[in-house]
Write a structure and sequence with these properties.
By secondary structure, the protein is mainly beta. It has one domain (about 25-180, about 195-230). It is built from two helices and 14 strands; from the N terminus they run αβββββββββββαβββ.
């Protein structure tokens, strides 16, 4: 048994077995529904391997790919200081994270609107066996009033406000585990299954109404991304 595990670990370490396939884009950008096309420009990055990402610009019902570059915080360098776009750590000391009610907790990702009056934040629920929320809330910061709870139904990895504070763009993913190839079966056997993710973006109004939804990429190994919404 120890010999088998040793061989499996060595095979998994092989650069041939671990070569990450290129991103697979859905034809026609995967426009799902779009009764209210977004204004301005939504810029997003979808990771295509562990260090680089495919960059996109989305305006109205069209988009263009900008090529690939390193996936790091430079992508967000145009955000003004204090805009509170945060993906991993809660840093809002003035916000009651339990305001929604018992068994819930405001979580990352979150984003403050440009007017700094409304917070869009992920919502964790007690008993959820997931790392990322599938629901988020719009919260009026001054009064702690819950404006709207929105169930996305997928793991939320990013939120960003439109420049007019009327809607947010939500990046989410659906994860599955591969068990077909030798590499995938070996990884699953030692407790480290390889995940593949389909990526979605949804534009949602403060009233909870769906404005526009797209599925830009599918079957990305360990897939995730970043998103921001600019005026132009």
């Amino acid at each position: 048994m120890r010999v088998a595990i040793f061989l499996a670990m060595n095979l998994l370490a092989s650069p041939v077995l671990w070569a990450v396939p290129a991103i697979e884009s859905t034809p026609g950008f995967g426009l799902l529904q779009c009764p209210i096309p977004p204004m301005g420009v939504i810029r997003f990055a979808v990771r295509s391997d562990k260090t680089t990402a495919n960059m996109y610009e989305w305006s109205g019902k069209t988009y263009r790919e900008l090529g690939s570059e390193e996936m790091d915080k430079r992508f967000f360098s145009t955000f003004k200081a204090g805009s509170n776009h945060q993906w991993n750590f809660w840093e809002l000391a003035n916000v009651n994270r339990t305001v929604v009610g018992p068994g819930t907790l405001l979580s990352t990702p979150y984003s403050m609107d440009p007017g700094e009056k409304i917070l869009a934040a992920g919502l964790e629920r007690k008993g959820d066996d997931i790392d990322e929320p599938t629901e988020f809330v719009f919260l009026e910061v001054a009064t702690s009033r819950i404006i709207k709870r929105v169930e996305v139904g997928r793991s939320i990895v990013g939120l960003s406000w439109d420049p007019n504070s009327a809607a947010v763009v939500v990046m989410s993913r659906v994860e599955r585990y591969g068990k077909k190839s030798l590499r995938e079966r070996l990884a699953a056997a030692i407790g480290h299954p390889i995940s593949y993710d389909d990526i979605f973006l949804d534009v949602i109004g403060v009233d909870g109404a769906a404005h526009c939804s797209v599925a830009p990429a599918s079957s990305i190994p360990y897939g995730t991304g970043l998103v921001r919404w600019d005026t132009k």
